[in-house]
Amino acid sequence: MERVEAGDLERGAPEQGDDLDRVVETLRGKRIAVLSGAGISTDSGIPDYRGAGRVARTPMTFQEFSADPARRRRYWAGSHLGWRTFSSARPNDGHRALADLEAAGVVSGIVTQNVDGLHLRAGSRRVVELHGSMDRVVCLRCGQAFARSDLAAVIDRENAWIDEPGTVTLAPDGDVDITGADRFRVPACSVCGGVLKPDVVFFGEFVPVEKFHEAVSIVAGADALLVVGSSLVVNSGVRLVDHAVRRRKPVVIVNRGATRSDRRAVARLDAGTTETLTALRHRLLH
Known about the structure:
Helix content: 25-40%
Number of strands: 11
Shape: elongated
Number of helices: 10
Radius of gyration: 20 Å
């Protein structure tokens, strides 16, 4: 990780009142790298677990998942029900605006912290899924990959009880409380019988080195970095902001609520991503 100098933390600190004009002025005429977080997908019905009013939660770590069969059952039961939401979600106007900006040559690539696949489904082509994707499953023993939809069909057949009335209660943070999770049957790898895991980065895991290098290359090849819908709590996002700032590339942040890198941004807009990206598409293309 690059060292952050004290002077860098103060340079370019934005005023709270930065508006869309300032954002447009900063980005106009530049090739833009985009870093997106959960805030861009809330308008597609996918919860933002760190948003205002959300209940604090303790995500399962990779160590817990891999070591404890009971925890693994509980995880898979909740993840399977969450997958139903993910698989039915559709890209919103914010995703489509970024795809249009990329097609016009304004956006040079997207690095996303999301695992919902909505950027690709919206038509964006150069996308680095920093934390993986929920539509894939991998075996921890042999490395075989499977389509999540295929595994979901198997889970549905083997766990019909999960749709019984009163079995599932939706929690305020979008997770689920499941009665009888100890009955949940988790399919094993059909190749070697190993443990299956969604192809996403758990807490306690590292972002794959090659994946992070892809993300850095997108930022390095752009003239500016636009952060949308991320509070930058995860260090990988902060490191990409650091990379841009140390190379004197302007950083613009659009997010509801504070982020860890607000004082490093040239412009900071406290606003929703869908309406902001839609407005940016219009103003940067005309």
